[in-house]
Amino acid sequence: MSSISVQAEPILSVRDLKKHFGGKKTWSGAVSKTIRAVDGVTFTIYEGETFGLVGESGCGKTTLGRCIARALDPTGGEVVYAPKEGGAVDLASLKPRDLRPYRQDVQMIFQDPISSLNPRMTLLDIIGEPMVVNGLARGEEVKHRVGDLLERVGLRAEYMVRYPHAFSGGQRQRIGIARALALNPRVIVCDEPVSALDVSVQAQILNLLQDLQAEKNLTYLFIAHDLGVVEYLCDRVAVMYVGQVVELAETSDLFARPLHPYTEALMSAVPPANPRAARAPRLLEGDLANAANLPPGCHFHPRCGYCVERCRTEEPELREYSPGRFVRCHRAGELKLDGVAELAEADL
Ligand SMILES: Nc1ncnc2c1ncn2[C@@H]1O[C@H](COP(=O)(O)OP(=O)(O)OP(=O)(O)O)[C@@H](O)[C@H]1O
């Protein structure tokens, strides 16, 4: 795990970010339902840290990551970025032309490298084109830089004349990483970068990401549903449930003692450290709430084993439970919830 220095400065402050889909008139005059994919997310990411984002499929992680990288236009809220030269800019509200100088600072790596790599382009074009378009290099210099980048991510420079289909899944992810690095970014949104890979290859890619972070002082927003990967890699973690953050904490605190019943439920699906341990997995029951038709009160209440009357009617706020620890639950602190570390100890 990388550790951020105490003096680390905020590099991205996400404030009340929203991305709603739908809500538009259809051809028949009816209005389509509004899907609240991201619905008021607030957190700060510090320079050099790995900030994890977890939650079930469909809870809005990808949409949030894409809004932060401005691959999608947010519906509302702010993404305040601190450029190297000082000051602060709200990436969420900049017009495309004004966004251009900052776009290269925030890059993305995707889950499925093959669908994000143009099959008709050589690696030289895939990795070199952004350099040329952004005026970072031209001519022979592009080849040199692409060769260096390929070698840095563990591939051979001469592969630059080949096409993506000639490579394995792990190698393609290395190509995706080289492309993201081509513009010397400061922040990389890593959207499930290892979930499509074999376990042995996953470790190699995670090690590469860690080495690159140390070398280039990169900041990662790391989106994942595999809690084991998140525990290993992230400094802090935000847990999302239907478009909202329900808990945010330092990784070790979150895993040792979750404060939100949803976090506990996610963790109960993690295999115990001791495989012989007799532990009944308390799997998450019921389906993720519908982002187009949210339940009243706490959005998690229909699936929550700790639900009381207030949870059915009153929507909880995200509040700071202790310094740096945020939770959106009426009963936070009152409940004694199981974390992974505690379970592992109890199992021995
Ligand atoms: N372009 C779109 N139009 C309409 N709805 C969308 C669009 N993109 C995402 N959604 C909806 O927004 C919600 C959040 O989706 P998103 O892909 O961000 O979740 P996720 O947590 O990243 O899921 P996964 O892990 O499966 O990628 C879902 O209900 C999804 O159906």
Write structural notes for this entry:
It is a peripheral membrane protein. It is found in: Cell inner membrane. Belongs to the ABC transporter superfamily. This is Peptide ABC transporter ATP-binding protein. The chain is of the alpha/beta class and 348 residues long. It folds into three domains: 9-25 and 33-105 and 185-234, P-loop containing nucleotide triphosphate hydrolases (Rossmann fold, 3-Layer(aba) Sandwich); 114-184, no CATH class; 258-347, no CATH class. The protein is 31% helix and 21% strand. It has twelve helices and twelve strands. Strand 4 (76-81) and strand 5 form a beta hairpin. It is globular. 40% of the residues are buried. The chain binds adenosine-5'-triphosphate. The site of adenosine-5'-triphosphate has 13 residues, from strand 2 and helix 1.
Indicate the low-confidence ranges by residue numbers.
Answer: 276-280, 342-348
Strand percentage:
15-25%
State the total count of DSSP E strands. 12
Q: Tell me the helix content.
A: 25-40%
Biggest pleated sheet? 8 strands, mixed
Assign the CATH superfamily of the largest domain.
Answer: P-loop containing nucleotide triphosphate hydrolases
Q: From the alpha carbons, calculate the radius of gyration and give it in angstroms.
A: 21 Å
Domains, number: 3
CATH classification, class level of the largest domain? Alpha Beta
Tally of individual helices: 12
Mean pLDDT equals 90
- Shape assignment: globular
Which secondary-structure class do the elements indicate? alpha/beta
CATH topology (level 3) name of the largest domain: Rossmann fold
